[in-house]
Amino acid sequence: MRCAGDIEARQVDETAINIDPIQVGGRLTADAMKAVIAYGDGYSVCDNCRKPFRLDYIKKPPIADFHADLASWVEMDACRVVPGARRGFQAVCQGLVQKGDPVILTALSHYTEFIAAESVGAVPREIPKDEKNHITPDAAAETIERVIKTEGKAPALLFVEGVDYQFGNHHDIKGIAKVAHSYDIPVLYNGAYTVGILPVSGRDLGVDFVIGSGHKSMAAPAPSGLVATTAEYAERIFATTAVKGDQTGRTFGIKEIAMMGCTLMGVTVMGMMASFPHVKERVLAWDEELAKSRVIIDALLAIEGTKILSDMPREHTLTRIDTRESFDRVAETHKKRGFFFTSALGKRGIAGVIPGATKIWKFNTYGMTKAQAEYTAGAFLDIATENGLTVND
Amino acid sequence: MSQRATDALFQSLFLLTDIRVMLRETAPLHQLSAEEKETAGKLLKSIRRQVDILEEELI
């Protein structure tokens, strides 16, 4: 079925249980879909934009209130919506980092954190992960010391992921922030896999910036996200324009430089806003999400040879799995080779695993119903049994 | 201008969206429970009412 011209109507989530590691937390709520219908046109939120002509001042629809609500929800002082977490990283770098400044990232940082640092000419330096794939306060301290010694100055910023995209592991953010602050280094918390699916308080974590992703974890259209900060840093990050046209003498009011004026001017912010009441509710049900995830993890671990590479027991719905000694053994002799696995999943109505993956891969169980979790667990076991793998009780 | 037709159009799209979410929540088999069937029935009835309004206003 096509929705227009050669564009196929995407029906992945209507026809299958989606376990794609990056997609599930960003699926729209019914209310967000309705907002998309009503606000699909380009500058659709600008009908009632009045002086001082800035997105976060618009009262109808209540975008101004939404900004205030977002800030208080993540327990920070100020917040802006941005086109994805990556633009939040970039805004913070633009406000704090000078060319040649060292910036600390981690061995588990997303590529967009590196590119944000690169965009301002920073020198990226990584905190190594330990043997359990954790970023620790001790490793952060050692890295800061190393950087000061080698670069001759303290890092301008430290990025750290609340939950990393590779393993879905939690890291000791409070401890790392404490270490960084002892060197007067501000801390950016990457909440792409936390803000919107589990409770996050920037104040409790002791960080200076909280970044969230709308399309990854807040049931919002892409690209959307948030950058929140403390009163201490708000003026620097959200600095307003002072430029003046040399021929016309024009100035540009209170547009914010790092935001490039206004950010999400239509369907993205409205989708994010429409989902927000549901998002606030759903973070409180995080334990239920973990329980559903464990139903699937238990099934996978019952298949002999399968290993979970993420922390166990699972404390996040994103999981990295090693099936080299189970499904990949089947792939070695199967006529479809590695594609047998995703093909078998597809036949059972499960989508989101990279086609051909049978070695090390990731999945995310977020947002499925209990019945869907049980069905998915059963499907993995069926595929294993059907292909001669041993399934333990 | 027919505000009634415009409202009926949006209302029907919103109701259809609720059905869309129902399909998502019951994928891949779409075997609805008795409660879900009752909800789906109510939604479909409401959609028909909105389509009737559109017919009255536009045809």
The main β sheet of chain B shows up as: none
Radius of gyration of chain B from CA coordinates = 14 Å
Q: Please tell me what the overall shape of chain B is.
A: elongated
Poorly predicted tracts of residues of chain A: none
Contiguous helical run count of chain A:
15
> What characterizes the major β-sheet of chain A?
7 strands, mixed
Mean of residue pLDDT of chain B? 97
Count the E strands of chain B.
0
Q: What's the total number of strands of chain A?
A: 14
The tally of helices of chain B reads 2
Residue stretches of chain B low in confidence (pLDDT < 50, at least 5 long) are: none
* Percent range for β-strand residues of chain A: 5-15%
Shape of chain A: globular
Summarize the helix and strand pattern of chain A as letters: EEHEHHEHEHEHEHEHEHEHHHEEHHEEH
Question: Helix- and strand-based class of chain A?
Answer: alpha/beta
| Secondary-structure element string of chain B | HH
Portion of residues within helices of chain B: over 70%
Tell me the distance between the termini of chain B: 14 Å
Q: Tell me roughly what share of residues is in helical segments of chain A.
A: 25-40%
- Biggest interface pair, residues each? A-B, 19 and 14 residues
